[in-house]
Amino acid sequence: MEGLEGYTPACPMTLETLNNGEKVCLFQSSSDADLAAGFDAGLETNYPDDVKWAGLNTAQQSALKRLFGWIRSCVPANATADDLGTFVSEKFKTEAGQYFDMAHLLTYYVHTDYFASVDQRAKNILLRTWDGLVWYTTYYDATRSLPKGTTVSLPTTTRSTVTRGTRKPGNTPSRVARAGFGTLCWPTFRTN
Q1: Is 139 helix (H, G, I), strand (E, B) or coil?
Q2: Chain-centre distance for alpha carbon 145
Q3: Using an 8 Å Cβ cutoff, are 147 and 38 in contact?
Q4: How far is CA 68 from CA 102, 151, 152, in A?
Q5: How many Å apart are CA 87 and CA 74, to the nearest integer?
Q6: Dihedral, 6, 65, 190, 158 alpha carbons, nearest 10
Q7: What are phi and psi of 177, to 5 degrees?
Q8: What does DSSP assign to residue 17?
Q9: Measured between alpha carbons, how far is 31 from 133 in angstroms, rounded to an integer?
Q10: What local confidence, expressed as pLDDT, does residue 102 receive?
Q11: C-alpha dihedral over 88, 37, 176, 82, to 10 degrees?
Q12: 173 preceded by a cis bond (ω within 30 of 0)
């Protein structure tokens, strides 16, 4: 890939989100230090292959701090997962294209929404960058779409009935069907 415009050899990276219960996987890190402390439990690198936070070079760590710090700065202090209206962010609206390829991000969101991909809004996302600046989301592990192969036990498999707030039947009311309900990235994206 060397010689391609926009390619920075020190910054190509692919992250795999691992665990719906980890703050970093939900874009909930409270600081750069919190990101570093939680990275290994919530994320792993696919490229470079299986490198922990301590093994990332300075440019890669800076790229991650930039992305996660920006997401943190876009989420209003009063934002709550139960009320999308609390995620309104002018900063996100005006700056998102500096951090994500927006056409790609919109396509990912629509795809995961339409196919009721209940496990692709926290874990089962690949985040890729070639330059350390603009990130692309990649869908994988579609075993829980429409919600085929899921332990969610939804009463129907039609897309239109699995919304962001659909609750898992038979469980406590706080359990939602979509993994990553508390993520800070997707409500901010959807609201803005």
Answers
A1: strand
A2: 17
A3: no
A4: 17, 31, 30
A5: 8
A6: 90
A7: -70, -40
A8: E
A9: 19
A10: 93
A11: -30
A12: no
Q: Which tokens go with 97?
A: 């294209």
pLDDT for residue 157 is more than 50: no
C-alpha distances in angstroms, 112 versus 78, 121, 135, 141?
26, 8, 17, 12
SS3 62: helix
pTM: 0.78
Task: Taking the CA atoms of 30, 8, 59 and 25 in sequence, report the sign of the dihedral they define.
Answer: positive
- Residue 91 and residue 73 in contact, taking contact as beta carbons nearer than 8 Å: yes
SS3 content of the chain, % helix, strand, coil (to 5): 35, 15, 50
- Please name which of 63, 57, 123 lies closest in space to residue 99, comparing C-alpha atoms: 63
Amino acid at 184: L
Q: In what order do the strands lie in the sheet with 125-129?
A: 43-47, 13-17, 125-129, 135-139
Who's near 55: CB < 8 A, 6+ residues apart?
48
Please answer whether residues 191 and 84 qualify as being in contact, where contact means their C-beta atoms are separated by less than 8 angstroms: yes
The residue behind tokens 């930039």 is 66
Per-residue pLDDT reduced to its tens digit, 30-51: 999 999 999 999 999 999 999 9
